TrEMBL record:
This is Pectate lyase. The lineage of its organism: Eukaryota, Viridiplantae, Streptophyta, Embryophyta, Tracheophyta. Binds 1 Ca(2+) ion. Required for its activity. Its cofactor is Ca(2+). It catalyses: Eliminative cleavage of (1->4)-alpha-D-galacturonan to give oligosaccharides with 4-deoxy-alpha-D-galact-4-enuronosyl groups at their non-reducing ends. Residues 413-436 have a biased composition (Polar residues). Its EC number is 4.2.2.2.
């Protein structure tokens, strides 16, 4: 017996009211907001940008800029006055996270106080006070700082954390959380020794304080968020993942980072059964995966991940893994296998056998295999070879990843770990110069009295409601009698 017409009509009205959240009736896959409909076109654009920078390097005669062929760095480093135009960085991303605006168009907020004493009423001038504001902000640092977090640092929409010109270290309890936000850029900071914390109240905006349970201890946790770019950071020694992206996060670029000394490096996807992660799209480019890493560089549950022009120099189990039919497009990387003859394979299919994964689309194209490393392709990856794109840039991997990590000092966190971190700023709240490296010209936001910029910020409530609708609607099952079973809808 068919279900009542009224129930079906109600179901269709609710579903249609959230038009960006499209349900595929054939496979029950979901389309996430800001998911690109043709991901291979994003891949082609990445190659175009790389090839353009390499070609420019070959004919460059301007001594002011020694182009390395890395399109992200060439975009802003070739400007000798970049410190006077910091927000140009927002135009330099590539790949799926290219649209991340960060705090572009907003005022400059100078962090002058390295303390983190109050998670409910953060002190003006601190990083915590800066990141919870509603308006777009471009956040810079007045001096070298070691910021020991008391609890999770919850970042609001339209923020850029820009560590250029200062030696900035973020460590401690919880570390960085991006939850139901968009347009965040994190650039040129050290992140390490992040441990679980929580069971306390933490402010996430000027008007909202919420109770937070225990965190996982990720370096950067991306939860239900989009348009995120993490660039030129050094990450190591955290309790859980260095970077985890889960719960329908998408439009992410992770580039030019230096990963060392960690087990579960990067997890992309919440759970194998969580279908919204099918819409996750991530670009992983120009990173160095180095000493002391074990696995998950990354591990992908669902979605489309482009791994391009990275240098994998160490792993103790595997480099790239997957578990629920993700598309993995590996192009122009260098994989150097360990000496152990049992650890030569780059790839690992988690908790599946050959009959289950042989149709998964795992591609390798132009990758360089060193010391016996080998990549096991499957599905379209065997015949398609990523639309026959030829990533010749693999031979320039030293050049493309040579500046991975934090600029202007040690690229990784080894020196910081041995010394226990850098010298902590006095926390007096007064501006402290750093040999003129931090340009403080232009609009300065000191913590109070700033007017909101014009860029709109999506509300946390609307995004949360969207995900609740997803959770309640994505399972529509026909039972053995041919009857349609409609789940009970849940609302806030």
């Amino acid at each position: 017996m068919a279900p009542p017409t009224g129930i079906l009509l109600f179901y269709l009205i609710i579903a249609s009211s959230f038009s960006p959240l499209i349900i595929s009736t054939a496979h029950l896959n979901l389309t996430l907001p800001h998911q690109h409909p043709y991901p291979d076109t994003v891949v082609l654009e990445v190659h175009r940008r790389v090839n353009e920078s390499i070609a420019r390097r070959q004919i460059l005669v301007d001594n002011q800029c020694e182009s390395r062929g890395n399109p992200i760095d060439d975009c802003w480093q070739c400007d000798p006055n970049w410190a006077k135009n910091r927000q140009r960085l927002a135009d330099c991303s590539i790949g799926f996270g290219e649209g991340a605006m960060g705090g572009k168009g907003g005022q400059i907020y100078i962090v002058t106080d390295s303390s983190d004493k109050d998670t409910v009423n953060p002190i003006p001038g601190t990083l915590r006070h800066a990141v919870v504001q509603e308006e777009p902000l471009w956040i810079v640092f007045a001096s070298d700082m070691l910021i020991k977090l008391k609890h999770e640092l919850i970042i609001n929409n339209y923020k850029t954390i820009d560590g250029r010109g200062a030696n900035v270290h973020i460590t401690g309890n919880g570390c960085i959380t991006l939850q139901y936000v968009s347009n965040v850029i994190i650039h040129n900071v050290h992140i390490y020794n992040c441990v679980p914390s929580g069971n306390t109240n933490i402010r996430s905006s000027p008007t909202h304080v919420g109770y937070r349970g225990k965190s996982d201890g990720d370096g950067i946790s991306i939860f239900g968020s989009r348009n995120i770019w993490i660039d030129h950071c050094a990450l190591s020694h955290c309790t859980d993942g260095l970077i985890d992206a889960i719960m329908g996060s998408t439009a992410i670029t992770i580039s030019n980072n230096y990963f060392t000394h960690h087990d579960d490096v990067m997890l992309l996807g919440h759970d194998d059964k969580y279908l919204p992660d099918t819409g996750m799209q991530v670009t992983i480019a120009f990173n160095h995966f180095g000493e002391g890493l074990v696995q998950r560089m990354p591990r992908i549950r669902r979605g489309y991940v482009h791994v391009v022009n990275n240098d994998f120099t160490h792993w103790q189990m595997y480099a790239i893994g997957g578990s629920a039919n993700p598309t993995i497009n590996s192009q122009g990387n260098r994989y150097t296998a360990p000496d152990d003859p049992n650890l030569k394979e780059v790839t690992k299919r988690e908790d599946t056998n050959t009959g289950q994964w042989d149709a998964w689309n795992w591609r390798t194209d132009g990758d360089i295999m060193v010391n016996g490393a080998f990549f096991v392709p499957s599905g379209q990856g065997i015949a398609n070879k990523a639309n026959n794109v030829d990533p010749k840039s693999a031979v320039l991997i030293n050049q493309l990843t040579g500046n991975a990590g934090v600029l202007g000092g040690p690229r990784d966190n080894s020196m910081s770990m041995s010394k226990g971190g850098t010298t902590e700023a006095s926390g007096s709240g007064h501006d402290q110069s750093n040999s003129g490296d931090v340009d403080l010209s232009g609009m300065i936001f000191s913590g109070t009295g700033a007017s909101a910029a014009s860029s709109p910020s999506p509300t946390t409530t609307s995004i949360l409601l969207s995900f609740l609708i997803i959770l309640s609607l994505y399972i529509t099952i026909t039972n053995q009698d041919g009857q349609l079973s409609v789940p009970l809808l849940l609302f806030l």
